């Protein structure tokens, strides 16, 4: 039966003879059994993923992976979930990176918590869209409550507001857009949203540290300011923004005729996990009467920790903050937020679409989160995952996980520092350690450490990241898993050492 042949049925939907056959795939009351069995079979594959993997990566090469995916004919459908799951297992699950294993210490991919995964089932099945009240109802207010809760952790007052976003890069974009538009509005009474960039925009300058996230550059370029508007201030010996140099660079830009419009402080750099001096930066921003944005995509974890919260002192003085729950709150991707101190300033982003949030709609009575969103219209109810998490675990358990990870990192830092085979480059406020393996008989330490990283990657036993500092290649551990023990890391270091000893003999 196709659509045209469908009997009209009861207009109230009481006895529509839908379902089965062609329409059995639609998520609907009558197809709940199908939904449930499809999800259960898929869950078995999750179980396989968990039980099978004892290393974070299979070690497969991209070329082989590509071939496996490419040979599939998408125009030939499969006949059962069993076939589908076998296919997806072969080309995806078997080789997927297992972030939950202690041997995964590479990038900022946290292990995720079970309450959030339970929430995810509702997020995808009910499929609310967070842009307007009529597409989300309670979801709008739950998101707002979580935004308010996050703002409270930051130390903001009741004037704050914000919105969930797809990630830290997008939240940072919102921070820079608000910085730029508020500056232009206040300084020149020029409305960028309506009139485009003012003549002065070519001379706008935004100050970041040279260890800040690259999204600042990308964002500046899509904002029409060009990467040139980003001034990278050198960092001190702990890789935090050097305040003396910040002042110097600001003065230098002014002398060149350029116009400082704001400062981005990084609370937890991706490479070193260190927090820029927030109080000092707040003082300088205040003095110049310019916007301060804090990129706490990673460092937001500290907000919940009694033990380490002091490292974020001053964050409450920022005009806006980026939070990545999918980096530091053990949330599945995506889950992120942009928070502003003063909700009146968020209005600068507001756009009225007659079909969604017409101007005459009373914001208090019928709220619409789309008013605060910079590019997303249809938007997932990611906030529900955080709701599940907070309600089941409480803030204290999240904080405990974070404290455990930071404490582990401190132990590992001592372990590396005391080991004559290793050189530790820096300590960390959070949980990243940058180091390298050294051998007195090897001159090219870059080649040595690149070799180790490559060997580890293709063995799949341990995944570490790397970075370059002053042109030199270093290995990098990012710890985010509270399950990881010093014994696990001890074994990882032994593997690194073993490959390091092989260098020059085996290759
Ligand atoms: C990861 C990261 C970002 C970008 O966040 P996404 O969620 O990956 O878009 C921004 N800033 C810092 C410091 C980060 O570590």
Automatic annotation (TrEMBL):
The keyword Hydrolase does not apply. InterPro entries: Aromatic_deC, PyrdxlP-dep_de-COase, PyrdxlP-dep_Trfase, PyrdxlP-dep_Trfase_major, PyrdxlP-dep_Trfase_small. This is Cytochrome C biogenesis protein CcmH. The keyword Transmembrane helix does not apply. Its cofactor is pyridoxal 5'-phosphate. Belongs to the group II decarboxylase family. It comes from the Bacteria. CDD domains: DOPA_deC_like.
């Amino acid at each position: 039966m196709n659509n045209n042949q469908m009997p009209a049925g009861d207009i109230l939907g009481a006895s529509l003879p839908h379902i089965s056959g062609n329409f059995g795939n639609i998520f609907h009351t009558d197809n709940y059994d199908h939904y449930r069995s499809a999800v259960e079979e898929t869950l078995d594959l999750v179980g396989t993923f968990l039980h099978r993997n004892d290393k974070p990566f299979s070690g497969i090469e991209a070329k082989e992976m590509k071939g496996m995916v490419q040979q599939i004919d998408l125009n030939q459908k499969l006949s059962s979930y069993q076939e589908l799951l076998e296919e997806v297992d072969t080309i995806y699950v078997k080789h997927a990176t297992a972030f939950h294993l202690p041997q995964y210490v590479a990038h900022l991919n946290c292990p995720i918590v079970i309450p959030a995964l339970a929430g995810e089932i509702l997020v995808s099945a009910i499929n609310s869209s967070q842009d307007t009240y009529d597409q989300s109802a309670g979801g709008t207010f739950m998101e707002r409550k979580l935004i308010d809760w996050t703002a409270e952790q930051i130390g903001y007052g009741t004037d704050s507001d914000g919105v969930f976003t797809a990630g830290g890069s997008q939240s940072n974009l919102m921070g820079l857009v608000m910085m730029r538009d508020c500056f232009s509005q206040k300084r020149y009474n020029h409305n960028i949203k309506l009139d485009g960039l003012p003549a002065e925009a070519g001379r706008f300058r935004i100050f970041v540290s040279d260890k800040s996230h690259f999204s600042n550059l990308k964002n500046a370029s899509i904002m029409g300011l060009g990467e040139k508007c980003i001034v990278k201030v050198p960092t001190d010996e702990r890789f935090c923004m050097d305040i003396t140099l910040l002042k110097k660079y600001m003065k230098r830009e002014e002398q060149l005729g350029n116009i400082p419009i704001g400062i981005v402080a990084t609370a937890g750099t991706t490479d070193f996990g260190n927090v820029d001096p927030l109080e000092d930066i707040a003082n300088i921003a205040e003095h110049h009467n310019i916007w301060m944005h804090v990129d706490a995509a990673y460092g937001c974890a500290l907000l919940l920790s009694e033990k380490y919260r002091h490292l974020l002192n001053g964050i409450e003085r920022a005009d806006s903050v980026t939070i990545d729950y999918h980096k530091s709150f053990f949330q599945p991707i995506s889950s992120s937020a942009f928070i502003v101190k003063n909700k009146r300033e968020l209005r600068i982003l507001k756009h009225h679409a007659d079909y969604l949030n017409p101007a005459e709609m009373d914001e208090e009575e019928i709220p619409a989160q789309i008013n605060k969103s910079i590019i997303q219209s249809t938007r997932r109810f990611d906030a529900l995952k955080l709701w599940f998490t907070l309600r089941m675990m409480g803030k204290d358990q999240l904080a405990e996980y974070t404290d455990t990870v930071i404490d582990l990192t401190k132990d590992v830092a001592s372990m590396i520092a005391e080991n004559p085979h290793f050189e530790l480059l820096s300590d960390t406020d959070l949980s990243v350690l940058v180091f390298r393996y050294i051998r007195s008989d090897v001159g090219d330490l870059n080649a040595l450490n690149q070799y180790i990283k490559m060997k580890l990657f293709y063995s799949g036993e341990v995944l570490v990241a790397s970075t370059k500092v002053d042109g030199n290649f270093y290995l990098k551990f990012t710890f985010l898993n509270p399950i990881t023990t010093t014994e696990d890391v001890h074994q990882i270091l032994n593997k690194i050492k073993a490959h390091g000893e092989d260098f020059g003999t085996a290759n």
